[in-house]
Structures are given as C-alpha cells and as structure tokens.
Design brief:
Elements: H1 9-34, E1 39-41, E2 45-49, H2 50-57, E3 63-73, E4 77-84, H3 85-95, H4 108-133, E5 137-139, E6 143-148, H5 149-160, E7 166-175, E8 180-189, H6 193-200
Antiparallel strand pairs: 1-7, 2-7, 3-4, 3-5, 3-6, 4-8, 7-8
Keywords: Chemotaxis, Hydrolase
GO biological process, one term: chemotaxis
Protein name: Chemotaxis protein CheC
C-alpha cells in the first residue's frame, strides 16, 4: 500500500508542474499533427479516492473514452486518460477541422484519433516526468476502452491488481477561443514508484 498521507502541498505542486509541462508539449504535438491549435493546461493535481474520481467526472453511468497504458522502467505504474464521450466527439471534430456536431458516435476513425490524442498526452506527461527526474519510463502501446465510467474504473482496478482506494489525478483542460472541457489523467503507481520520483528531485516522501 502507498502511504498517500505523506504527500504534502509541495509534492502536488511538483506533479502539477510536471503535468503543465507535459500538457504544453502535447498541445504543440497536436498542433503539428493536425494543423489545429488547441491549448491545454493543468488546473489541479490531487490525491483522491475512487468515488471522488467518479463524482469529479460525472457518475458511474457516464459514457467515457479511456486510454490506458502500462509504464515500465525505473518508476513503474499504470496510467489512464479519461474524457467524456461528448467532449471526445467535440475534440475529434476540432482536430479534423469539421463543424462541431459532425461526429455523433465513436466509430473506428474517431477511436483511432482519440487513441493518438491519448498517446500524445500521456507520452508528453511521462516525457516531462522523465526529463525532470532523470528516471527511465517506457510506455506500452495504449489501449482504448469505450464504456460507462464505473465499468472502466472497475476494469482498470482488476487488470492492474491495484487495491488501494486512492490514486493520483492530474486534471487536464483543453480550450481554444470557442470551447473548453476537461480530461483526466490518473496514475496507479506501483509500490515505491512515487518515492523514486520525489527522491530524484530532492524531495523526501
């Protein structure tokens, strides 16, 4: 079990800064890939329990897209990027240069676009974490799930064997001149992984 109670404001500030750097890099990568400018930032980084995570996003029956991958290397973990279905459809429209409302369902093309977006975002956050900590972090090939939030969270816990009630969440906000909506990057660290991250930047946990 991870002793989440040891985390203080300074630890969350470091995680938020890592998230902001990663979000900035992801926004640049998406702009290069699509020719469409969508900004991103990180309003919050926090430690919350599972029920609070569900309430933050919506409810157990909220349909979401979840991109998940395993992180190998010096600080192993499992990471997930979750975005509501309606926000995901809007994001696909924006990135493909289509009028809002063009995509009304998550078809194969939308899944491919969202997988790439999730891959870029999680990869950018992990790259910024590696850069700040000098730790080696290798992401696996991402997998996409399209289901109700409660089912997605339950499957994540079962597949990763994660039995703690709390997790690390980095909220990500997408916005341009006409839209703003949130995505949620959450991390299930293996035992000892957080200690390695903070020790590498000179902060004890």
């Amino acid at each position: 079990m991870i002793n989440w109670d040891n985390l203080q404001a300074i630890h969350l500030d470091v995680l938020k800064e890592i998230g902001n750097i990663g979000a900035g890099n992801a926004a640049t990568s998406l702009a290069v890939m699509t020719g469409k400018k969508i900004d991103m930032d990180v309003p919050t980084a926090a430690i919350i329990d599972m029920q609070s995570l569900i309430k933050l996003i919506g409810d157990e029956e909220e349909v979401v897209i979840c991109i998940n991958l395993e992180v190998l290397g010096d600080s192993p973990s499992n990471v997930f990027f979750v975005i509501k279905e309606n926000s995901a459809l809007t994001l696909v429209d924006k990135l493909m240069g289509l009028p809002e409302g063009s995509y009304t369902s998550i078809d194969e093309t939308a899944q491919s676009a969202l997988s790439e977006i999730g891959n870029i975002l999680t990869g950018s956050i992990l790259s910024s974490m590696s850069m700040m900590t000098n730790l080696n972090m290798k992401p696996s090939v991402p997998a996409l799930a399209h289901d109700m939030l409660g089912a997605v969270i339950s499957a994540a816990m079962l597949e990763t064997g994660y039995f703690d009630d709390r997790l690390l969440i980095i909220e990500t906000r997408f916005f341009d001149e006409s839209i703003a909506f949130d995505g949620y990057f959450f991390m299930l660290p293996h035992v000892g992984s957080l200690e390695k991250i903070f020790n590498s930047v000179g902060i004890e946990l």
